[in-house]
Specification:
- The chain is α/β, with parallel strands linked by helices.
- Strands 2-3-6-1-7 form a 5-stranded parallel sheet, sandwiched between helices.
- The chain contains 8 helices and 7 strands.
- The two termini are about 35 Å apart.
- The relative contact order is 0.18.
- It is globular.
- Helix 4 packs parallel to helix 5.
């Protein structure tokens, strides 16, 4: 799902002009993403204000505001990802049972209609690449960012975090029957990660907006 400045999410003109098909797998499944009536009422400023104000206040009070305020602000800005050259990924970190997954799920569900995260312990490297390239406006959330996730998947998500800063593309080779064929995947989506692993690489620390849930 791609969003342009002059086109509306899901409009006929947008569907005709922009369509992403990942290599060899078919279209990414957006059935878990649902835009509710309250979100669609943004065209009516009065109706939107009556809904958005209490909603934002309730979400900010859901956890420590040092966590929820930057998360909400980042997620609202993520809708305009295609309009800026540089946009940081977002990371929500914390120990086991700290509530990081719960607060992330509630904020993404309320603001984005995202009903389920992509778990890095059960997502393949190709799955990570496909989702990172599947949209330029809806937040793509990867949970379980930690050493326990599969090594090859973690290598891919770490590269995606670098590429997502400028929505750049990485090339990979050696797959399938033609070992010299290159596959290119663009990290155009606003990327959100959550988990127990803290960022260690300078390239990640400099690019990711991070909060810690205690």
């Amino acid at each position: 799902m791609f969003v342009l400045q002059d086109e509306v999410i899901g409009s006929a003109s947008a569907a005709e002009r922009w369509r992403y098909t990942p290599p060899s797998t078919g279209d990414a499944d957006f059935s878990r993403y649902k835009l509710g009536g309250a979100v669609l009422s943004v065209g009516d400023p009065v109706a939107f204000a009556s809904w958005a104000g209490p909603m934002a206040s309730a979400l900010m009070g859901f956890n420590n505001r040092a966590v929820t305020t930057p998360m909400i602000a980042w997620m609202c800005a993520a809708i305009g990802r295609s309009m800026v050259r540089e946009f940081p990924p977002f990371g929500c970190f914390g120990g086991a049972d700290s509530g990081k997954t719960t607060v992330t799920r509630e904020v993404t569900k309320t603001l984005m209609g995202l009903d389920e995260e992509h778990n890095l312990t059960s997502t393949t490297p190709h799955g990570v690449r496909v989702w990172a390239a599947a949209t330029n406006a809806l937040v793509i959330w990867f949970d379980e960012y930690r050493r326990g996730a599969k090594r090859d998947t973690m290598e891919v998500i770490n590269q995606i975090l670098r590429d997502a800063w400028t929505a750049s593309a990485s090339s990979r080779g050696g797959f399938g029957d033609d070992k010299q064929k290159l596959l290119e995947s663009k990290a155009s989506a606003p990327i959100l990660i959550s988990g127990e692993e803290n960022l260690e690489e300078r390239s990640h620390i400099d690019r990711v907006v991070s909060v810690v849930v205690n």
